[in-house]
Write a structure and sequence with these properties.
By secondary structure, the protein is of the alpha/beta class. The protein has one domain: Rossmann fold, CATH 3.40.50.720. It is built from nine helices and seven strands. Strands 3-2-1-4-5-6-7 form a seven-stranded parallel beta sheet, sandwiched between helices. It is globular and about 55 Å long. The structure holds nicotinamide-adenine-dinucleotide. Nicotinamide-adenine-dinucleotide binds next to helix 3. Nicotinamide-adenine-dinucleotide (NAD) binds next to helix 3. This is NAD(P)-dependent dehydrogenase, short-chain alcohol dehydrogenase family.
């Protein structure tokens, strides 16, 4: 898909058409100030979309218009959607990406407070994003061109397989997986033109790993985690942004309720090499 943006060997008119593929679309990316969200915002904007970056921390040099937002707060969601619908008049793409890793506590060591903090951001935040997006996309269904809603929820491989370690994070990402399918089925049943899919990354080199980088160093930590992927490395954020771009665009028009795994092969099976 990277050829989509660079267009090597392609006719200029075709490249121009593809670059403006999302020119009539409005997108919100939560957690868009950093990592996967920032890369996604950049790719959506490059494809022509009007992008709103909704994050609790301000983006330093990211793409899109920044709106301060806390995904755990219902009043913050209301303010965000009032702002976007007043200014842009529509919403086509909702990327529920904001998330934290939290503590790596297990079933014996995780406190109720830590459990609830992680669910509030990673799971409740995605639920609220879906609820507000469905309402907005449904209401703007009469817009010209018509809204073809796409909701993309960022889960994790931790949402596909269990873990003895970070139980709260794993449970929060599992919730995102089935929440996504439920939203997809509800929208289809209602006849809304809204698709909803989840993305399941393996290790991606972002600030979410800062505690590890601070302990063992960035390059050493990256090599350590990369070696646990069959493909032999961690992903760069833009590699996940490309997946989100596909699911956000009409190129995935028959894809809903699906889980898109981008994990360098981790969940494909066991490796023969030690
Ligand atoms: P990141 O730390 O670079 O970005 C996360 C962003 O979320 C930050 O900008 C942060 O300010 C924002 N955020 C945190 N709490 C928020 C809140 N309450 N309201 C609004 N914004 C908030 O991390 P990332 O790796 O880019 O993570 C993005 C998503 O990808 C997360 O949901 C994460 O769980 C998921 N993920 C990441 C990896 C990985 O290896 N990096 C793997 C699987 C899944």
């Amino acid at each position: 898909m990277s050829g989509f943006f660079f267009g090597y060997g392609r006719a200029p008119a075709m490249v121009a058409a593809e670059m403006s593929e999302l020119s009539d679309r409005v997108a919100i990316v939560t957690g868009g100030a950093s990592g996967i969200g920032a890369a996604t915002a950049k790719l959506l904007q490059a494809a022509g979309a009007t992008v709103i970056v909704a994050d609790i921390n301000e983006a330093k040099d990211g793409a899109g218009r920044f709106v301060a937002h806390d995904v755990t707060s219902e009043s913050s969601w209301q303010a965000l959607f009032t702002d976007v619908l007043d200014r842009e008049g529509r919403l086509d793409i909702m990327v529920n990406n904001a998330g934290i890793s939290g503590s790596p506590g297990n079933v014996e060591t995780t406190t109720v407070e830590e459990w609830q903090r992680i669910q509030a951001i990673n799971s409740d935040g995605v639920f609220l994003g879906c609820r507000h997006a469905v309402e907005a996309m449904k209401r703007t269904g009469s817009r010209k061109p018509a809204v073809k809603g796409s909701i993309v929820n960022i889960s994790s491989i931790a949402g596909l397989i269990g873990s003895a370690g970070p139980i709260a994070y794993t449970a929060s990402k599992g919730a995102v997986r089935l929440l996504t399918k439920s939203v997809a089925l509800y929208c289809a049943e209602k006849g809304y033109d809204i698709r909803c899919n989840s993305v399941h990354p393996g290790g991606v080199d972002t600030a979410i790993f800062n505690p590890l980088w601070q302990t063992v160093g960035h390059e050493q930590g990256k090599a350590f985690i990369g070696a646990r992927h069959p493909i032999g490395r961690m992903a760069e954020p833009t590699e996940l942004g490309e997946v989100v771009l596909f699911l956000a665009s009409d190129r995935s028009s028959f894809v809903t309720g699906a889980e898109f795994v981008a994990d360098g092969g981790i969940t494909a099976g066991l490796m023969r090499r030690a």
